[in-house]
């Protein structure tokens, strides 16, 4: 998933995303997308496969350990309670238009391998449909992701919305003391710094310096779990995109237990990732056109529909006590306008007003929203 992460580094000063959720979403779509679109998607998936191969057995283990039951409802706070009782939870659901039927093989695979629940929705009632989906996501992420779908994202042509969510909350094995947190400078460049609440503690943990890559690495474990935060701190000249490409198994192999004076910022932020546009930039285009390739998902009139939107929202909060993180992804399948190229004026552009003889009457540029 480092291809996507590298592109996000170009867009945002701070990045948080769930590569697992994006991978899982695309894997679920691959179950039903055929033809050239399926080939495009599978080719891209090979580029972003997790470092460890996730077999059917691994999916079954993930299912047993972390995935919430497919039939779990959000009524009476049951899903929220279940999420709070575990360190990590994963949930998947298909919201389907009343009267629309999914291919049996597609639905069976998603229910068996991904514990995917099914819920009928009246997408003609846009606000109500968005509320239903957002309520499920809120419950699955303990209220951290609150509005992933807007009423404008769905409508009478929407056939289904496939959603997944992940929630994590754990305490550090070696907690920081708030008394030791001080305002310190955070250097965003060699010339510029900003104040930040810097946590501090001396602890014995896995640590290493990768001379070849000029990167310090520390592994901060959480209590009662095999999960840990791996923090990679490059020297000034190092590139974060290059650091993100390092294989975790190679990095971990170079770590040894050391007594380390750890200084880590306390921080919280969120990100909204337009996965749709990122996939287009990477050459995945067929799934966004209306064609027959979705006939492995829908039973009827598949050629009239395509994927109109894939979006992810993610959140993280790192404190002296521990870490809380959440993410959700939504994929909308509905009637789409077929196109060969896209022109998205979401960056500075030049413009002019001219006549048929190319006489410029006005010209200008737009570089910043007002």
TrEMBL record:
The gene is SPB11. This is Serpin B11. It holds the Pfam family Serpin. GO terms for cellular component: extracellular space. Keywords: Protease inhibitor, Serine protease inhibitor. Belongs to the serpin family. PANTHER family: GH10112P-RELATED, SERINE PROTEASE INHIBITOR, SERPIN. Gene3D superfamilies: Alpha-1-antitrypsin, domain 1, Antithrombin, subunit I, domain 2. CDD domains: serpin. Coiled coil: none annotated.
